[in-house]
């Protein structure tokens, strides 16, 4: 980065960062910062940027795993994913999505997140921020797709308003990926075991962002299984209609992957889905989740970095 562009003079404001804004109506912002130059002094400004624009992309660079973790640490507390089979062998903070063996051994999990979801929605304390670094990109267009849930809520048809007034239930067990330790277990046993590890949780169907106070629809086809206040048949029908509206083609932003081009997003405001690429071609990406020290939504218990 050129010294004349240094944002450090007033690093708590997103305005201090050198950014390229997208065309009107497009999601996300590109920040002209090498992630290796981001330290704790830039964390507040970068967090402000992602809260404002929801999705931030960076210039391509060759980041080591340690540098990726250091970048995440500048933003908050890196997450250790609750399932060990996703971990990088040397760095548990790195969640590995890969179909490439390392030294002949399977590393991480292949084909993750190919459904609309938001990270850790099925936990009492969801994950606020996600960083993803594509490392090996297949030849076909590989991308992460995003939907802006503030916009979706703003445009929600009136007929669906009564269904977003309460709480929604979220569950992970239907997305469990079979592991070698599951051999000889029945599907029922596997679901019971994983269901006990990740009991269903509820969150408000519309959440309030803890920083700027905007309202956001907080459901996803991947993890949301019921609307609490409605009978099961009504809930199922209404959720289907909600998901169909959320996932309308006009709402989908596609962010193509480039090797070494990091993505950072706010899980409170976006749902996302892995898309494109061939399952047969080598592909690898590294994710580090970040707890930003704020409650996931306003008026709820505070997050883990808060005093
Ligand atoms: Fe995800």
Task: Give the topology, please.
Elements: E1 19-20, E2 29-31, H1 43-53, E3 55-57, H2 65-75, E4 77-78, E5 95-98, E6 129-136, E7 142-148, H3 149-154, E8 167-170, H4 187-197, E9 201-204, E10 206-208, E11 215-217, E12 224-227, H5 232-246, E13 252-256, E14 263-266, E15 270-276, E16 284-291
Parallel strand pairs: 2-3
Antiparallel strand pairs: 1-2, 3-14, 4-16, 5-16, 6-14, 6-16, 7-13, 7-15, 8-9, 8-12, 10-11
3D structure, described in words:
Strands 1, 2, 3, 4, 5, 6, 14 and 16 form an eight-stranded mixed beta sheet that branches. Strands 13-7-15 form a three-stranded antiparallel beta sheet. The chain has a single domain (3-291), classed as Clavaminate synthase-like (Double-stranded beta-helix, 4-Layer Sandwich). It contains five helices and 16 strands. Helix content is 18%, strand content 23%. The structure holds fe (ii) ion (FE2).
Uncertain segments are 1-10, 301-307
What CATH architecture label applies? 4-Layer Sandwich
- CA-based shape: globular
The structural domain count equals 1
Query: What does the oligomeric state look like here?
Result: single chain
Name the helix and strand elements from N-terminus to C-terminus, one letter apiece.
EEHEHEEEEHEHEEEEHEEEE
Structure in a nutshell:
This protein has 307 residues and is α+β, with helices and mostly antiparallel strands. 18% of the residues lie in helices and 23% in strands.
Q: Top keywords for this entry?
A:
307 residues, alpha+beta, Double-stranded beta-helix, 8-stranded mixed β-sheet, 3-stranded antiparallel β-sheet, 16 strands, globular, disordered C terminus, binds fe (ii) ion
């Amino acid at each position: 980065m050129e010294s004349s562009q240094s944002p450090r003079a007033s690093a708590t404001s997103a305005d201090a960062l050198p950014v390229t804004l997208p065309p009107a109506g497009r999601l996300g912002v590109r920040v002209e910062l090498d992630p290796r130059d981001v330290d704790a002094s830039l964390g507040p400004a970068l967090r402000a940027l992602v809260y404002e624009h929801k999705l931030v992309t960076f210039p391509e660079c060759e980041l080591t795993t340690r540098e990726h973790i250091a970048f995440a640490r500048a933003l908050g507390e890196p997450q250790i994913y609750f399932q060990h089979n996703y971990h990088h062998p040397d760095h548990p903070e790195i969640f590995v999505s890969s179909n490439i063996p390392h030294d002949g051994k399977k590393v991480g999990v292949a084909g993750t997140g190919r459904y609309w979801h938001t990270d850790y929605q099925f936990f009492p304390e969801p994950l606020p921020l996600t960083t993803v670094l594509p490392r090996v990109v297949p030849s076909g267009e590989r991308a992460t797709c995003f939907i802006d849930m503030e916009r979706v809520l703003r445009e929600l048809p009136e007929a669906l308003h009564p269904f977003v007034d309460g709480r929604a239930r979220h569950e992970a067990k239907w997305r469990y990926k079979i592991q070698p330790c599951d051999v000889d277990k029945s599907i029922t046993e596997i679901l019971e075991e994983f269901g006990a590890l990740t009991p269903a949780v509820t969150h408000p169907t519309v959440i309030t962002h803890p920083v700027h106070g905007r309202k956001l629809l907080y459901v996803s086809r991947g993890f949301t299984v019921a609307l609490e206040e409605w009978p099961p048949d009504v809930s199922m029908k209404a959720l289907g209609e909600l998901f169909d509206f959320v996932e309308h083609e006009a709402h989908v932003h596609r962010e193509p992957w480039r090797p070494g081009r990091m993505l950072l997003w706010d899980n409170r405001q976006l749902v996302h889905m892995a898309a494109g690429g061939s399952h047969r071609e080598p592909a690898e990406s590294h994710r580090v989740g970040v707890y930003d020290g704020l409650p996931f939504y306003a008026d709820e218990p505070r997050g883990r970095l808060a005093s």
